[in-house]
Design a protein that fits this description.
42% strand, 6-stranded antiparallel sheet, 0% helix, single chain, mainly beta, 96 residues
Length: 96
């Protein structure tokens, strides 16, 4: 099953959380927070503005993005946990 987000929504796959701290301490799964970084796996066509024109998306498939800790709606598709959120809920695109 494939998902196609509508309008200004994106589908994000969370990237794996770090299992070690900067000092080398191993963080157990129970204490680890959900990551706020993910990869865009699908993007809609863009936001429909008041004048009826469509503003294209600023992100594209494959971009690594940062988002708020409690942003988006979690969905499970084919055993994979994904997030669906609006483009405006994204904080930044990570440049390589």
């Amino acid at each position: 099953m494939k998902l196609r987000p509508l309008h200004d929504r994106v589908i994000i796959k969370r990237l794996e959380a770090e299992t070690k701290s900067a000092g080398g301490i191993v963080i157990p799964d129970a204490a680890a927070e959900k990551p706020i970084k993910g990869e865009v796996v699908a993007a809609g066509t863009g936001k429909i503005q008041e004048d009826g024109k469509v503003r294209p998306m600023a992100v594209k498939v494959g971009d690594i993005v940062l988002f708020g800790k409690y942003s988006g709606t979690e969905v499970k598709v084919d055993g994979q946990e994904l997030l669906v959120m609006r483009e405006e809920d994204l904080i930044a695109v990570v440049e390589k």
